[in-house]
Amino acid sequence: MAAVFARDVATVCAYGNDCVALATEHGFALWAAWGRILQGWADAQKGEATTGIARIRDGMAAAEATGSRVFTPLFLTLLAEALALAGKIEESLATLDDALATAGVSGARGWDAEIHRLCGELTSRLPYPDPAKAEDSFRTALAIAREQGTRGYELRAATSLARLWGEQGRRGEARDLLAPLYGSFTEGFDTADLKDAKALLDKLT
């Protein structure tokens, strides 16, 4: 899961495969289900979105069959990512709505910031984009991440909002938002999120 959060696809793929193999060998149904979900996310990130979607859905059904629900909002978010990579934007947005609704019922709110950020990103990719709605989603994601102290999600939300502002010609606002946050990190500069933030800051200067 740490590798998922770091967007380290190769590690997710390797651990997902190991997890499924070991869990299947020893009869750990829940771990086998979680492993399939991780495999599916990695598949989608590697360009095999159709396979990934099927694996995630299969894993989620198997996990729910054990009675486990705690990670459902996260798994729905991973499914939404895979759907988006398959070009199914409206279905992906509906899945994110389900994730928020499920989190509201269960109280598992740890992924709310990322869900709102993805809503903003996908809103921008609709046939008729709504920049104002996308900005609202990014601002909500940023506020939640700050409240929860999830700095990784805060960086993602700030990067998404700064990118939108940059595209609108609001380069100064974008820099003022992103630069201090990026500058507060002291490690992890080889991760995808920090690389993305740095690349955007370079474009904004």
The count of strands amounts to 0
Overall radius of gyration: 17 Å
Overall, the morphology is globular
Helix count, DSSP H or I runs of 4 or more residues: 11
Residues in β-strands, percent:
under 5%
Largest sheet: none
Give the H and E element order: HHHHHHHHHHH
Considering DSSP H and I runs of 4 or more, what fraction of the residues is helical? Answer: over 70%
Note the gap between the termini: 34 Å
- Oligomer classification: single chain
Q: For the residues shown, what is the average pLDDT?
A: 96
Task: Give the low-confidence spans.
Answer: none
The structure class reads mainly alpha
Outline the structure in words.
The chain has 205 residues and is mainly α. Helix content is 79%, strand content 0%. It is built from eleven helices and no strands. The radius of gyration is 17 Å and the shape is globular.
Short description:
The chain is mainly alpha-helical and 205 residues long.
Structural features:
79% helix; mainly alpha; single chain; 205 residues
Fold blueprint:
Elements: H1 2-5, H2 9-26, H3 29-45, H4 49-65, H5 72-85, H6 89-106, H7 112-123, H8 131-148, H9 151-167, H10 171-183, H11 192-204
